[in-house]
Amino acid sequence: MKKTFCLFLILWISVPIYGQENRSSDELFVEARHAAFQEKNYPKSIDLAKSALQKSPDYTDISIFLGRLYTWSDNPAAAREVFEGLDQRNVEDVDFFIAYASLEYWNDHYEKSIALVDKGLGFHPDSEDLLLLKAKVYNSNNKFAESEQAVLKLLELNPKNTEARSLYARIKELTSKNALGISYDFSHFDKQFDDNWHILSLSYKRTTPIGSVILKANYANKFAENGMQFEMEAYPRLSKTFYMYVGAGYSGAVGIFPKFRTGASLYANLPKSFEGEIGFRQLYFSNSIWMYTASIGKYYKNFWFNLRTYITPGNENISQSYTGTVRYYTKGANDYFSFQLGTGISPEESINSLLQNETYKLKTYKIGAGYSFSINKMNFFSISATYFNQEYRPYTKGSQIDLSLGYTRAF
Question: InterPro entries from the entry (predicted)?
Answer without folding.
Answer: Beta-barrel_YaiO, TPR-like_helical_dom_sf
